[in-house]
Amino acid sequence: MVTQEIAPVRREEKEPARPQAVRRRRQGGFTLIEMLAVVVILAIVAGVGFVVVNNQIEKARENTDMANLRTIADAANRYIMDGNDPATLPGTSKKVDQNSVLIGAYLGAPPKDPWNSAYYSIDVQGNTITITSPHGGNNAQTLSVKF
């Protein structure tokens, strides 16, 4: 006769009862510390992004400013090549505004400063025309052209 051993049936053991606070933790959601960490990380990323974008905007303004200086210098050169006296180029105000001799045939309208400052200024000394950006401070740009 063959004898078989029957293994006792094991019942799955239940987890011991836990306090209610521990059970809540298993529910979905974030803790306050996790939320604060995310907010801090987002603030750092936004701050770095703001600095980078602001630097690019400033570079674009400086490039536009230099292009405006070159446009005014080109118009002044054409004014002189048409036989006009260079001494009359700056006019009485020395500004490239609506009353400037360059407006009309040489410049359609006064170039707009990227910083919304005053007008560009022109100065003639001998055979050199100097055009200065209205934006003062460290970013002021000057272009000198000989005719």
TrEMBL record:
<dbReference type="Pfam" id="PF07963">
    <property type="entry name" value="N_methyl"/>
</dbReference>
<dbReference type="GO" id="GO:0015628">
    <property type="term" value="P:protein secretion by the type II secretion system"/>
</dbReference>
<dbReference type="GO" id="GO:0030420">
    <property type="term" value="P:establishment of competence for transformation"/>
</dbReference>
<protein>
    <submittedName>
        <fullName>Type IV pilin</fullName>
    </submittedName>
</protein>
<keyword id="KW-0488">Methylation</keyword>
<feature type="region of interest" description="Disordered">
    <location>
        <begin position="1"/>
        <end position="22"/>
    </location>
</feature>
<keyword id="KW-0472">Membrane</keyword>
<feature type="transmembrane region" description="Helical">
    <location>
        <begin position="32"/>
        <end position="53"/>
    </location>
</feature>
<keyword id="KW-0178">Competence</keyword>
<dbReference type="GO" id="GO:0009986">
    <property type="term" value="C:cell surface"/>
</dbReference>
<keyword id="KW-1133">Transmembrane helix</keyword>
<dbReference type="GO" id="GO:0015627">
    <property type="term" value="C:type II protein secretion system complex"/>
</dbReference>
<feature type="compositionally biased region" description="Basic and acidic residues">
    <location>
        <begin position="8"/>
        <end position="17"/>
    </location>
</feature>
<dbReference type="GO" id="GO:0016020">
    <property type="term" value="C:membrane"/>
</dbReference>
<dbReference type="InterPro" id="IPR012902">
    <property type="entry name" value="N_methyl_site"/>
</dbReference>
<keyword id="KW-0812">Transmembrane</keyword>
<dbReference type="InterPro" id="IPR045584">
    <property type="entry name" value="Pilin-like"/>
</dbReference>
<dbReference type="InterPro" id="IPR000983">
    <property type="entry name" value="Bac_GSPG_pilin"/>
</dbReference>
